[in-house]
Structure formats: structure tokens, C-alpha cells
């Protein structure tokens, strides 16, 4: 991975996220997004309303693509991605991005602002804007890439699964490099939808706390550049990935964590590693009673006591289809900067949690990190990253 970036409520770019993690400064705030009162906390990225897309992309202007643009323009990522397109050729760079809602917020707005004759106003008439592929289409246009392009929409595992798909494309010769990542923005459909499932907490989320009572929804954009044989000096590496689909329930994990275990086992096998080799785990840790109980039991069972594990959703909120990439970047921060972020807002850990759970930030130098992402319908993914210089 020769470049990576993340933008969320915790800040724009890697340095801002790292600073928030180190200072234990959450980006969550009381809901000020929905037009109808909903008592909850959210992770909102400021300034998107005042930042329309550049003129050349006006037909795809929406909150989701504005956030994508904000993410692309952090940490020099856009310049590095454009250089990759130039280096390999437009047809040899894949675009694989995850999102759970794409630009559905723009569709909501389009229906709210219908013209007198009942049709969409001109700003909402590009049909691509209202499809799940709005994000990928936008990023393709920005980069001028013409290689394989795919939208991954597997709920909260979306932008973790993109790494697996990109690795396959590169390994099988369909591409020499891939821009991966994910973007999801706040919208009424998501906020009220999760609230209808009784999964939204009226307080800031408390991952793995015994008194946890739901998620805080956030928005984020993150990207990474994967290159064939990318042993660039200091570049982190994708060592392994695992995927599974337990299909146990539409919105609840398998009670014994069958899918989570399979995804983790697959990632370890592909990386040629044992559980004891993992120094840090960024947990999915949504702060819902069911998810955290299952994940806590799986980690306590599979990993040795010295492995450190935490959820970073107390900083960003649950960014849905962007959660995988944001938390992958959190893993890279731990690897590159030598510290373990604790679990914000957890004061009394669930008894199911093992000694692996880190509550406070810790100085450490992990060589290998694992990120787990679990989505609705039992769509699970696990990613393993290593520090630059590993074989």
C-alpha cells in the first residue's frame, strides 16, 4: 500500500485522525443533521454543504461525492493516484470502492425539491447520481482510470472487502494497481432506518461497555493505493484477507461468531501467520449488544492475552460502508506510529471481554495488525496489515 488517507468526524487526513486518537478527542456530537428531531449522537464532517464539486463534475454533485472529493484531496492521495494511472496506464488501474448508501441522500433531496410538474429539478437529473455506482463513477472521472471498476455494497464490511477484491484483480493480472476505499455520508434514510431497528443510542456509543445500548452513526471517506509488488521503502503491506458469509440473520451476527471466525482464519492462513503473531486488532466494535458480545467472545477465544484490541468507533461513529477503510487506516497508524488506541467511552467492560481489550491508549510497536468488519446479513471480512520492510 503506497498511499492511504481517511477523513471523518475525527478530522481530515491521517495526521488529524492520529491526533484525535492520541488526545482521546471524539468527533461525535449531538445530532444536528436530520430535519426531524432524533435524539442521538453522530459523527459529522463539517463544511460539506459549502463545498460543491468542481464544475467538471457538477452532474454528480451530492454529499457523498463531496465527501469523496474531500477524502481524495488529503495526504497527497489524489496526486499519488493520478501518478499511478500515468505510470501503469489508465486501463491497468482498478477502482474498487465500498458504500452502503451511495448517494441516496441526493435522491431524498430530489424528491423533497420536486419541480411544479412533479419531476426532478435539473441538479438531480443525472441518472447515475441515483445509482449505487455514483461513487465509483465519480472517482473514475476524477482519476481518468479505465480499468476494472466495482462497487462493493455489503453493508458495514463494504470497504474492507474491497481489499480482497483488489488483491485478486492484481494477482490474476487484471490490473497492476488499484484504488480502494469507501465513502458513506449521513442521510435521513440511514439515521431513521437504524433507529427503527432500535440500534441507535441516545448517547455517544460505548463499544464493549456493559451498559452499551447502540451505535452512533458517522460519515467518512477513505482511500488506499495498492500496487503490484509494492515493496516501496516504508510502505505498509496487505499480508492477508479473509471473507465469509454466515447468512444467520438479516441484521444479527451468528451467536457463536461462526462467520467472524471463518474470516479471521482465512486472513491468517493467507498471511501465513498464527493468531499469536497479531499485535493489534481493530475490532468492529459497534456498541450494539449483540455485535460486541459475539466479537468479544471470539477474540477472547482465538487470541492470546498479550494481543491488544480496541474499537475506534467512539472517535468516528459507525461510518457504515466506510468503516472498513477508516479502521484499516487506524491499524496503519498503530503500525507506523507505535501506539495502540484504546476503546473510547468504555468504562466497565462486558464480562465477555478478555484481557485483550485495551481501554486506554498504550505505547507499543506492533508489527502486524488485524482489522475486522462485520456487515448485515453475515457479510464478514478480516484484513491483516504489516509494517513496511516485512517480507
Care to describe what's here?
The chain is α/β, with parallel strands linked by helices. It has a single domain, classed as Peroxisomal Thiolase, Chain A, domain 1, CATH 3.40.47. Helix content is 31%, strand content 19%. The protein contains eleven helices and 16 strands. Strands 2-1-9-7-5-6 form a six-stranded mixed beta sheet, sandwiched between helices. The chain has a five-stranded mixed beta sheet with strand order 10-16-15-11-12. Helix 2 runs parallel beside helix 5 and helix 6 packs across helix 11. The longest helix has 15 residues. The radius of gyration is 20 Å and the shape is globular.
How is this fold's topology laid out?
Layout: E1 3-8, E2 11-12, H1 14-23, E3 29-30, E4 41-43, H2 63-72, H3 77-88, E5 93-98, H4 104-112, H5 134-143, E6 149-152, H6 158-171, E7 177-184, H7 188-196, E8 217-218, E9 220-227, E10 237-245, H8 258-271, E11 280-282, H9 289-302, E12 308-310, H10 313-316, H11 323-337, E13 339-340, E14 362-363, E15 368-375, E16 379-386
Parallel strand pairs: 4-8, 5-6, 5-7, 11-12, 11-15
Antiparallel strand pairs: 1-2, 1-9, 3-4, 7-9, 10-16, 13-14, 15-16
Helix pairs in contact: 2-5, 6-11
Pfam family, one: ketoacyl-synt
Protein name: 3-oxoacyl-[acyl-carrier-protein] synthase-1
Keywords: Transferase
Amino acid at each position: 500500500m503506497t498511499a492511504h488517507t481517511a477523513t471523518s468526524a475525527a478530522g481530515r487526513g491521517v495526521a488529524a485522525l492520529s491526533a484525535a486518537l492520541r488526545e482521546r478527542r471524539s468527533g461525535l456530537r449531538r445530532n444536528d443533521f436530520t430535519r426531524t428531531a432524533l435524539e442521538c449522537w453522530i459523527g459529522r464532517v463539517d463544511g460539506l454543504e459549502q463545498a460543491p464539486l468542481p464544475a467538471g463534475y457538477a452532474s454528480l454533485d451530492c454529499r457523498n461525492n463531496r465527501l469523496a472529493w474531500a477524502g481524495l484531496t488529503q495526504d497527497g492521495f489524489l496526486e499519488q493516484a493520478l501518478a499511478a494511472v500515468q505510470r501503469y496506464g489508465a486501463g491497468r488501474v482498478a477502482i474498487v470502492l465500498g458504500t452502503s448508501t451511495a448517494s441516496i441522500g441526493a435522491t431524498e433531496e430530489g424528491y423533497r425539491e420536486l419541480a411544479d410538474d412533479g419531476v426532478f429539478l435539473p441538479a438531480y437529473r443525472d441518472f447515475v447520481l441515483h445509482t449505487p455506482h455514483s461513487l465509483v463513477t465519480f472517482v473514475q472521472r476524477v482519476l481518468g482510470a479505465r480499468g476494472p471498476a466495482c462497487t462493493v455494497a455489503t453493508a458495514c464490511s463494504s470497504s474492507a472487502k474491497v481489499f480482497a477484491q483488489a488483491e485478486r484483480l492484481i494477482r490474476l493480472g487484471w490490473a497492476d494497481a488499484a484504488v480502494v476505499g469507501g465513502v458513506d455520508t449521513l442521510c435521513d434514510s440511514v439515521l431513521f432506518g437504524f433507529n427503527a431497528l432500535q440500534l441507535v443510542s441516545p448517547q455517544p456509543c460505548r463499544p464493549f461497555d456493559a451498559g452499551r445500548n447502540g451505535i452512533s452513526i458517522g460519515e467518512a471517506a477513505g482511500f488506499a493505493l495498492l500496487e503490484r509488488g509494492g515493496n516501496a521503502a516504508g510502505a505498509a503491506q496487505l499480508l492477508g484477507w479473509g471473507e465469509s458469509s454466515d447468512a444467520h440473520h438479516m441484521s444479527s451476527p451468528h451467536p457463536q461468531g461462526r462467520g467472524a471466525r471463518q474470516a479471521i482464519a482465512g486472513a491468517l492462513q493467507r498471511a501465513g501467520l498464527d493468531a499469536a503473531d497479531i499485535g493489534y486488532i481493530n475490532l468492529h466494535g459497534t456498541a450494539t449488544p449483540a455485535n460486541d458480545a459475539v466479537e468479544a467472545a471470539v477474540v477472547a477465544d482465538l487470541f492470546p492475552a498479550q494481543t491488544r484490541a480496541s474499537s475506534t468507533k467512539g472517535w468516528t461513529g459507525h461510518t457504515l460502508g466506510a468503516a472498513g477503510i477508516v479502521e484499516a487506516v487506524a491499524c496503519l497508524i498503530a503500525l507506523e506510529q507505535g501506539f495502540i488506541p484504546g476503546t473510547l467511552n468504555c468504562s466497565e467492560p462486558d464480562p465477555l471481554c478478555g484481557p485483550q481489550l485495551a481501554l486506554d491508549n498504550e505505547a507499543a510497536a506492533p508489527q502486524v495488525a488485524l482489522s475486522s468488519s462485520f456487515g448485515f446479513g453475515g457479510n464478514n471480512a478480516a484484513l491483516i496489515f504489516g509494517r513496511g520492510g516485512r517480507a
